[in-house]
Amino acid sequence: MGYFLTLHRFALLFTAIVLLPAYSLPEPPASPSLYQSPIVSHQPRRESLTMAAEKVYRASTTAPVNIAVVKYWGKRDAKLNLPTNSSLSVTLSQSDLRTLTTASCSASYPASEGDSLILNGEAADVAGARTQACFRELRAHRAALEAADPSLPKLSAMPVRLVSENNFPTAAGLASSAAGFAALVRAIADLYELPASPSELSLIARQGSGSACRSLFGGYVAWRMGDAADGSDSLADQVAEASHWPEMRAVVLVVSAAKKGVSSTSGMQQTVATSGLFQERITNVVPRNMEAMEKSIKERDFSAFAQVTMRDSNSFHATCADTYPPIFYMNDVSRAAIRAVEAINTAAGRTVAAYTFDAGPNAVIYYLEKETEAVVGTLYRTLGEIDGWKAATTQSLNSSVSLDEGTAGILKAGVSRVIMTGVGEGPIKTDEYLVAEDGSPVKR
Amino acid sequence: MGYFLTLHRFALLFTAIVLLPAYSLPEPPASPSLYQSPIVSHQPRRESLTMAAEKVYRASTTAPVNIAVVKYWGKRDAKLNLPTNSSLSVTLSQSDLRTLTTASCSASYPASEGDSLILNGEAADVAGARTQACFRELRAHRAALEAADPSLPKLSAMPVRLVSENNFPTAAGLASSAAGFAALVRAIADLYELPASPSELSLIARQGSGSACRSLFGGYVAWRMGDAADGSDSLADQVAEASHWPEMRAVVLVVSAAKKGVSSTSGMQQTVATSGLFQERITNVVPRNMEAMEKSIKERDFSAFAQVTMRDSNSFHATCADTYPPIFYMNDVSRAAIRAVEAINTAAGRTVAAYTFDAGPNAVIYYLEKETEAVVGTLYRTLGEIDGWKAATTQSLNSSVSLDEGTAGILKAGVSRVIMTGVGEGPIKTDEYLVAEDGSPVKR
């Protein structure tokens, strides 16, 4: 890590001195077909006379969604995205939820174009400070490699075209920025062939979107808050692999017609600034929860895992409610989901299901595969009509647990679909490209 | 106070020794018409041969509802009803909300009958520990007076018949136990002609229902938490009279179809036991809020009053949400009311309305009379069709503030009635009796 950081600082300095002039050039070089790298200007490229002949470098990756069981909420430094507390998440299976991102660069891309992103078929903004921080950091790392080894292609000087797609609807309100930034960082890191570890890349992903740092790993992932002012120790590491606890499952109740709430970035800072109860959460509640959570995962103790999960979710939402003006991410449908989980646990006589809610009304319910009848079966009795159930699982279920009318009615009216999933891997390199060999977006 | 407490302790001892045998007598004396007081058994009553001739002593009082602006939530001693923190309330006007209670006792009431209560036309249970605590304490005080002055009628030995009525529906979910216990205590105290001050009586009302102690006063009332183990300093005192701030008003949005939630007594102890954030509330948040609230009332600073009110309500509900299992008293209609208040304040460019919620979904919105158009007018635009508006006020209103469709829709669908009211007096002696001179309930 030490070597990498030294390289990193050198790279940043290098970038500032060398590349900045390149990006402030108002016009491309006279000949549109020849992109002359200002770094090795004594070696004009003459091999190719058409833009299409310039190699298009590409790297493609899928990245997962993660759902925190000990929540991130609050920054101690907004610029570097440093949190007020540690957090811990479960990486969901990419078979069900994933972002596919291809990063590409080429000397044939006009410098004037700058970097670009097409997300789910539409041009997305990359000018924001957060995305720029990711680009800048990744480029700096690449530039440092290029400076150390002049034979490497000067990828750092080329515009980057990113094309990204989610296999789940944005309207599902499911942590898409975490998967998105993790995919962006991983894809560019692969494009640049950076030797960085996932933890080292998580430092960069963190600057794009805090929770994205946890999507650099599969299984059970902690984001250590760190204490360095420069954020160099605020990164993700893996608590356990997905295969450590193979029975873990999750079912997501997607709540329909959910009005977009307060943005997380804005909301959490309002909480930091105005909640009288917040300090207690970050000083005492979360550290205890982190310790208990790691232990429960290592020991595969579902009851403990579940209780910490539910209580941390409640604690997080309580600090939102204690914000001024108060922030309410959960609604009556969310609360009905809580009542359903409580009914399931009461009927089972022990904790077999755990709810958790992010900054939105969707319920994520964790359970172990052996309790599928109790958990999924009970929910299926009420919500069997909606989309998302995996018939292979539900067709054999026959739960005897019924929810009270009020709870069932609210769920029926308010849940638009379910997503059944499990725990999965971190980013996976793929040969499925969203950018063609000629640099154009693939028509899909 | 000191004399009264000494008398109090003597009275309790006296009661234990003297009266207990009376109440353990399995049968009434042989002659049904003659109730012989065991205390002065050497003076048999012979004046009257019919039960009807025995004097029926009566006292009737009305008592108000109070709505806390710094909330009571949590007991440090469940038996004595001692709170974890101080609280402060606004006494609402009895013209709109009040309990009328008549306390009566008579030697003609059969001893076997014991004490009784008819509440809103139905027999109510008085055997519970809390109600018994009130009867016992009040009787003890009366017994002490009688012991010191043998010429006084031995009211302490007679069964008590209470008849009580609210002028507001119980379904409104409006703090009726506070008004009820305050009325009970005040009526019996008047019946017994106790010299106790309202603060001294609040010590007794507190044992019936914590928040009832604040209904012994009008205007703005604090319940000082106290620190004595015996609760002798946990009582109410008046911060300011109603007339101190004559412009203060309140409008209550009664939320329909509200399922009965977790009882306050049970809920608050779950919060004490399980909420990680609760300690911070009682140690730091509430003491600060009490100080700021008293100051804002004394200075008639509505903006400060409003902000503390809203923030304390949010803090209280946050600790409920942080309880395990979580307690949710507010629902989506409650939150729509919050959004409405926020919209009203935003449109006004300053804080002109304050919401607060008790252990239920009803919204109580405080405002000053001069802002009636902004506050009531805006709510009336959306809720004009429902019952409870005072035409004299609403007919001239013409607010230009409109609520967003979502908020308005939820309010329209969820609010069943409104109650417009103001700040009023503490218990008021009345000649309106619910018990007739012959001891029977008055037919109404």
Automatic annotation (TrEMBL), chains A, B:
Task: Spell out the reaction equation it catalyses.
Answer: (R)-5-diphosphomevalonate + ATP = isopentenyl diphosphate + ADP + phosphate + CO2
Domain Mvd1 C-terminal per the UniProt entry, residue ranges = 250-428
Q: GO: which molecular function terms? A: ATP binding; diphosphomevalonate decarboxylase activity; kinase activity
Domain Diphosphomevalonate decarboxylase-like N-terminal residue range list: 63-236
Q: Name one GO biological process term.
A: isopentenyl diphosphate biosynthetic process, mevalonate pathway
Family membership, please give it.
Belongs to the diphosphomevalonate decarboxylase family.
Q: What is this protein called?
A: Diphosphomevalonate decarboxylase
- This protein's species is Lasiosphaeria miniovina
